[in-house]
Amino acid sequence: MSAYTFPTFPDLKDKIVLVMGIGQTRVEGSSIWGNGAATARAFCSNGCKVFGCDINLTAAEFTATRLRDEGGICDVMAADVTSSSDVKKVVDAVMEKYGRIDVLVNNVGMTRPGTPGSISEEVWDQQMDLNLKSVYLSCHHVLPIMEKQNQGAVVNNASIAGVSYIGKAQVAYSTAKAAIIHFTRVSAVMYAPKGVRLNCVVPGFILVPLVENLGKSDKEEDREVYRKITQHNVPMGRMGEPEDVANAALWLASAASKYVTGQPLVVDGGLTSQTGTGQ
Ligand SMILES: NC(=O)c1ccc[n+]([C@@H]2O[C@H](COP(=O)([O-])OP(=O)(O)OC[C@H]3O[C@@H](n4cnc5c(N)ncnc54)[C@H](O)[C@@H]3O)[C@@H](O)[C@H]2O)c1
Which domain of life is it from (predicted)? Predict the structure, then answer.
């Protein structure tokens, strides 16, 4: 099994887990996992059967191969999470194979820079589709299944950019991430009587391959973002690891959190709990 030791939640064994955005940004020579890939790994290490999709099939297959090499059970397929028909195809494929979906993880998310004055309407719409509509679409197709099962857990991946300004003008991404937190909160109330819980993980600065890549970019603006993220003011004095995000998702999907719903679980080393004036 996995070289990293994830916590074990016995109720998760044999659960069917669907991860939207299971691939990861690839960085030559890097062995770190992306948030979504690490989350899939955490579920595999708990004996779950993972089904993942990604717009980039090669990236999804890279994760699946790593998981299978560690003894995990993982199937993947290509899908664009902004397309309702693609999302439906993925959900149908999981139902065809396993007949149920116990856990849904919405991991896809990506930022584009811009203030309200500078961001184009086209980029705004793309950001809303990718970061927010994608969450609605997967919930639209999966929640009726969980409702019929009278059981299920959804974990959405938000961001502290949806809670505070984090030093980078990214108005569309921040707005979409804030909306994910609220979508999760109000949907959780609607589904609470149906045995289905919805929560979100709200990551802070996490050292994932995507961030590593910014530091290696030949664009100065990317390297500047990398510097801001890595020369941070995190009270714990370090960035988070993808496994920190994965552990939070694992707990939120397990019965250990069975009385928790509608919550944003902030995983940021204390960053958003301070005023910025330091200690
Ligand atoms: N790294 C951080 O510091 C940080 C902080 C806060 C939140 N997050 C959130 O973490 C999540 C992603 O983390 P990651 O490390 O897994 O990122 P990643 O970019 O490495 O992986 C995301 C995967 O999503 C896939 N994807 C992109 N568009 C898609 C689409 N339309 N349909 C299907 N798949 C698509 C990509 O191909 C990629 O494989 C995002 O929601 C991001 O907002 C990250």
Answer: Eukaryota
Q: Which of 98, 165, 173, 191 is catalytic?
A: 173
| Domain extent listing, the chain | 10-208+241-263
Cα separation, 44 vs 59, in Å, equals: 18
Q: Which of 27, 32, 83, 76 is nearest to 56 (CA)?
A: 76
Instruction: Look up residue 161 and give its DSSP letter.
Output: G
Q: Calculate the alpha carbon distances from 217 to 47, 170, 187 in Å.
A: 38, 19, 39
Please give the distance, rounded to the nearest whole angstrom, from the Cα atom of residue 21 to the centre of ligand 1: 6
Contact 36 CB / ligand 1 (< 6 Å): yes
What's the topology of domain 10-208+241-263?
Answer: Rossmann fold (3.40.50)
Token pair for residue 9? 């939640």
pTM over 0.85: yes
pLDDT of residue 233: 86
Task: For Cα atoms 33, 34, 35, give the angle at the middle one, nearest 5 degrees.
Answer: 120
Is residue 136 annotated as a catalytic residue, yes or no? no
Tell me: pLDDT of 2 over 60: no
